[in-house]
Amino acid sequence: MARPLSEEKRHSLLASALTAVATSGIAASTLSIAKKAGVAEGTLFTYFPTKDDLLNQLYLELKSDLVSHLTAGLMSDTDIMVQFHHLWTRYIDWGMSSPHKHEALRQLEVSHKITGATEQATHAMSHELQILVERGFETGVLRKQPVMFLWGVIQGIAGLVLQTAAGDMRKARECEDLGWETLWGAIASHQT
Amino acid sequence: MARPLSEEKRHSLLASALTAVATSGIAASTLSIAKKAGVAEGTLFTYFPTKDDLLNQLYLELKSDLVSHLTAGLMSDTDIMVQFHHLWTRYIDWGMSSPHKHEALRQLEVSHKITGATEQATHAMSHELQILVERGFETGVLRKQPVMFLWGVIQGIAGLVLQTAAGDMRKARECEDLGWETLWGAIASHQT
Amino acid sequence: MARPLSEEKRHSLLASALTAVATSGIAASTLSIAKKAGVAEGTLFTYFPTKDDLLNQLYLELKSDLVSHLTAGLMSDTDIMVQFHHLWTRYIDWGMSSPHKHEALRQLEVSHKITGATEQATHAMSHELQILVERGFETGVLRKQPVMFLWGVIQGIAGLVLQTAAGDMRKARECEDLGWETLWGAIASHQT
Amino acid sequence: MARPLSEEKRHSLLASALTAVATSGIAASTLSIAKKAGVAEGTLFTYFPTKDDLLNQLYLELKSDLVSHLTAGLMSDTDIMVQFHHLWTRYIDWGMSSPHKHEALRQLEVSHKITGATEQATHAMSHELQILVERGFETGVLRKQPVMFLWGVIQGIAGLVLQTAAGDMRKARECEDLGWETLWGAIASHQT
DNA sequence: CATGAATGAGCCTTCATTCAT
DNA sequence: TATGAATGAAGGCTCATTCAT
Lengths: 192, 192, 192, 192
Fold this sequence. Notes:
- The structure is a homotetramer.
- Helices cover about 75% and strands about 0% of the residues of chain A.
- Chain A is mainly α and about 190 residues long.
- Chain D binds a DNA duplex (21 and 21 nucleotides) through α3.
């Protein structure tokens, strides 16, 4: 009975938190977040018991959004390099089309507010990617390394490209290509 | 100007800010910084007119510290790859022996508080490195790319290694080697 | 008026308020009270239009509970001192067996939230006691004094005994006797 | 160096807290207290790290004020009853001339905010009274009982008198006498 | 110059009450 | 009637910065 929690408000709040965190870091105030979401400050706390909780949920949502964007259209039976190139393209695409998401993710990653449990939850999401990586190891295409390390390399170089491209949109294409060469050089095993 | 500003106090403050920022991010309070520096809160503001100013100075100092650590012992007439490997070793060494510095730098980089002017000032410091990179381009050893991009790759992979190694000190050596292979693969041109 | 207000829920709410107030004073939140009563927060306000109203009702109920406990088994034709001793025993009994009630009453008395009307209503309840007291004055057994004053003395000393006994249950009996001597000394006229 | 903590402001704050607590109970806001003290809200927290701390200090000050008022002019070599009567008179005098103090003390006593340490500290203050009481026991003038109990009786009856007198100032004198008879009856041993 | 008291805006969170369901 | 989401006003406390000493 009573009014049910509105999924719409929840999304408003997360969306508002997204831009707020991208703009002001985790110092963004709950009041500003609530206001931009068109909601009273108190309401924020009926959806997220704590500011930290909101940040964790936001982190989760961003990661999930990124992963699902990356894996969309991935064909698991094609050449591994092709698949990685697909991943790469999608990553840059994601970052270009929603720069706030990328920036907010960066802020959250550096913030010390993300709990171990949240981190765990993100791992569960990337099952498909994990398989791809493992196949890369087995076939000898990729240099053997911890999965998290590999993922970190991708993330790092993508971040770099996005940042570089942000300054000069016209070179975006060039930049993406450079990034791809860099990435593939970084992770492939180069056994001729 | 009876009593001049004491260089010692200035350093105390920067050192204190370093650990504070590494631990708590830029949210670290001026009070906590002053206290750990053994100085009154007001004093902090005679040395740095503003908290943001302190953060910028800290950033400058960290970058300069890093660059001078990297370039120490660099022999400009040896093989380029050897020089880069030296750089790499020194980077990891720096990060391992002073993890606070590395973490603080990360926090500052992400913080939106570093002004353009400060950023400019850091470029000036890396003259020697710039020359090395350019020689890399000319000789065709390195893939042609913006210097800042290259620098970002180094930084990103080094950060990744430090983070990975932090969790498991025993694998530090392994990790460093993996990092080097990754880095060299990322930046070298691979012309057979 | 399809469904009438349920007397059961009303009691749940008052019972819950009782322990909440005893524990946390009148600062106890309506949410906590409603929850412990197994009822939605909004429901509380259909039974009591206001938190202050709830507190007043609780006060009334506690006073009435106390008075009826005191007067139960009172034989109006025995010796006055015996009747007072009966009262005293019953008071201590009440306080010992339901310490929450006693504590809650204290909190409410001190709270400035009890209205004059509520206070009036309690007077009406103690008719039987009033008669006893007046007989005490007429026969010269009790020192002449305002009824409210006398009642205050009883309450004060009983409270003291309960508080003292709370710390050391083993001495409860001793404590009760001491209290009785104190009380009787305080109110009897001592005409030898 | 620097501006020293001003004893005057400290007193302003305690005085303001006194009336605020007397009027609104411990729910009195720190803002209202600071304002009435003519001081910024933040300032309150440089003098008292916590609201609870302020309340404890206030309690201490009130107790100390009361005790020193009671013992002033006490002649330890006169008759015990006379000394107690002196105490009684002083107590009523204190309560009459500063009703806020009395009310605030009541609020604090009931509040659950006074720590054990604070309570301890108050015991230390009443050394002189303790001696008087013990002499009362030794000489058989007082009924043997725990000191705290005796003190509670005095406090309780005094409170009652003050409350009763508050309603009808003209009867204050009468009321005080009645209180004294009640008190002495309550604590004296009545051995003829 | 060094100190730390003073300031008041701002922060996160709680709360009594209202109202849509 | 019962529910609990929605509200926005406080509440206690922290903080960067100023300024008297």
